[in-house]
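anyone seen this seq b4? input:
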Amino acid sequence: MIRLEHVYKSYENGTQALNDLSITLEDGEFAFLVGPSGSGKSTIIKLITGEISCTEGEVIVNGYDMSRISRRRMPRHRRLLGVIFQDFRLIENKSVYENVALAMRIAGASGKEIKERVPYVLSLVGLEDMMHAMPRQLSGGEQQRVAIARALVNNPKVIIADEPTGNIDPELSADIMTLLTKINELGATVLVVTHEKDLVNQFAKRVIRIANGRLVSDGNGWYIA
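predicted toks r here
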């Protein structure tokens, strides 16, 4: 579960990024987080991942109070999160298999666990036949699928997708969103940050809309900018 309760966030330069924001995402939910540039979407992601702390309020993620979480517990918290970035962030000199396996090695998985888990996760994203390919040999959509596999490989409870279709061809965007929907159906909580109105409307899931750091609307239906 993700819960933001009366959250404020101000930066040292005086920017007030969030203003009394309250959002709850229950286990197993799928939601889109939408809003214009500068509305606070990136700040919310950083609060959830523990990259920054809120100025006031409470941020609870998978049972952890992010304002009080210890350094010792932070690695476990981050293993329970899978984050998908717009720019893929693949290691160019490592194969598809190695890019995904690295996330498991960092988490302390054994060689046996890696050999069993990585091919399974690559099969989920339709890349089981490309595990030995290098990132430069893949299309943008395929690279994003590798990034999704990497986010999934440690079996996280929550997937955060930050503009996951921003660097791929528009015709592939629906495929990536369908894949994230499938991941949600397997039990993961999924939060997708996007500005693609047509894509949000196509899938008609819960839409959390913010502007100027405040909640504007929250409910199932359409994203009307």
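The first strand starts at residue 2 and ends at 10. Residues 21 and 108 are 36 Å apart (CA to CA). kinda curious what u guys think
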